[in-house]
């Protein structure tokens, strides 16, 4: 069975971008693939985190995976720092990827812009991400559009390593959703909806109550020209709402733009569709968070399964580069 790997940082509350950009594909892919889904806590250390808060968010993020429909009976669900091979292979990746390549990563440029102090790990982070993916002989990586460049870099790193040291890694491919691969902030529709950077009014959280979802959609920023058409560069707010409706309802962009003439009814239908999609997620999330012992047992089983796979790949890679095995 082909392998899938993906991860989410425990850096905040899961939102609609995570759901439509990543989670829905994660759930669908369980039918066909051997899936590994990871709470990438090491990645979140690239920026300041409060220790107690980080522990709490790690559990919440894992509960979010299950709430959206990741099935621990079929998929392996685990926490990155529980499998030490990630940090170790990351060093070999930093020794494969060039400084110039990391300098070209747009996410680094965006997240470091204007900051007085930037952690070295924010710069090297794509090497850790490459390690995450390559450790599991991953064929496909379901992600949102913002991660496309990192997956390209992972592919380049795998190809370069294999060329230099012999066939070691599977070269993975990104899988992006047809719609809503880049969900925009509802208040600032030129920026992506984000856990760490968006305002509460601009973000729909997976656990928002129905009234909050409807209110945020109603107040979403659009424009005043009144013409209902899909044009992301001239009409980013409205186009985002159209994308969202296409994604949650399965309707096409053309069908949507031809069936509404005013923004109000489109917003109302979008709000209803989002409430219907997210209500069961919110309910399951509440149940899961009520039983943290069950969650940590699942994460323990997941770590054990993940480590068994990761250890083999790491040993192969260390051997390939010429690190002397212990006697
Ligand atoms: P942060 O703001 O801390 O960078 P984030 O909200 O971008 O967090 P991540 O943990 O970085 O979330 O991303 C998890 C997954 O969700 C990734 O596959 C990413 O591509 C996807 N994703 C995140 N934001 C969006 C978005 N606005 N639209 C579509 N997909 C998204
Ligand atoms: N960098 C990603 C999270 C991430 C990831 C991964 C996604 C870390 N490792 C491996 C897919 C595969 C992010 O910030 N969204």
How large a portion of the residues is in β-strands, by DSSP E? Answer: 5-15%
Q: Choose one word for the global shape.
A: globular
By DSSP, the count of extended strands is 5
**Associated small molecules:** adenosine-5'-triphosphate, L-tryptophanamide
Taking the alpha carbons of the first and last residues, their distance comes to 34 Å
Mean pLDDT: 96
Give the uncertain stretches in residue-range form: none
Strand order of the largest sheet: 1-2-3
Q: What characterizes the major β-sheet?
A: 3 strands, parallel
> Rounded to an integer, what's the Rg over CA atoms?
20 Å
What is the count of DSSP helices, taking H or I runs of 4+ residues?
A: 13
Given helix and strand content, the structural type is mainly alpha
Report the order of strands and helices. EHEHHEHHHHEHEHHHHH
Question: What's the helical proportion of residues?
Answer: 40-55%
Q: Can you put this structure into words, describing what you see?
A:
- With 327 residues, the chain is mostly helical.
- It has helices spanning 16-29, 41-44, 51-68, 85-94, 99-103, 106-112, 120-134, 148-165, 210-218, 236-249, 253-259, 263-289, 292-321; strands at residues 3-8, 34-39, 76-79, 140-142, 173-175.
- The protein has a three-stranded parallel beta sheet. It has a two-stranded parallel ribbon with strand order 4-5.
- Strand 4, helix 8 (148-165) and strand 5 form a beta-alpha-beta unit.
- Helix 4 (85-94) packs across helix 7 and helix 4 (85-94) runs parallel beside helix 13.
- It is globular and about 70 Å long.
- It binds adenosine-5'-triphosphate and L-tryptophanamide.
